[in-house]
From TrEMBL:
Keywords in alphabetical order: Signal
Species of the source: Asticcacaulis taihuensis
Name the record gives this protein: HdeA/HdeB family protein
Highest taxon of the lineage: Bacteria
Signal peptide coordinates: 1-18
Length: 122
């Protein structure tokens, strides 16, 4: 009986060790500014992909952009609320701009991203 208990405990301990996940690779040590720039760049790419989109296509592009930016939010110090506000702001402004200009330039999209993240972070 005691032997079975010890064997059971060893099996449980072994299983626990086997199930321990390998820690993810560390995020490269970058400055807050570099990570913010990267996050803005990711958002700009998704906005570019949606430059002629309307309705649901635009929303889906923004969701993809938001999830990408959210990953980097953890390193930049922006709160989830600040990131969500920036994404909402970008979506609203892009929707307005698409109504006026169905194919905005990359410069215009980047300015939109920069402005949204500046407002969110400050």
């Amino acid at each position: 009986m005691f032997g079975r208990l010890v064997m059971g405990m060893m099996l449980v301990a072994g299983a626990a060790q086997a199930q321990t996940a390998v820690p993810p690779a560390p995020v490269p040590q970058s400055s807050k500014q570099e990570l913010e720039e990267f996050a803005k760049g990711c958002a700009a790419v998704y906005l570019m992909a949606a430059d002629t989109a309307k309705g649901d296509d635009l929303s889906q592009a923004m969701v993809r952009g938001a999830s990408t930016v959210d990953y980097y939010r953890q390193s930049t110090g922006l709160t989830a609320e600040q990131v969500n506000q920036a994404i909402t702001d970008m979506r609203d402004r892009l929707t307005e701009r698409l109504a006026r200009n169905p194919q905005p330039s990359l410069k215009e999209l980047r300015a939109n991203c920069d402005a949204a993240f500046s407002r969110a972070g400050g």
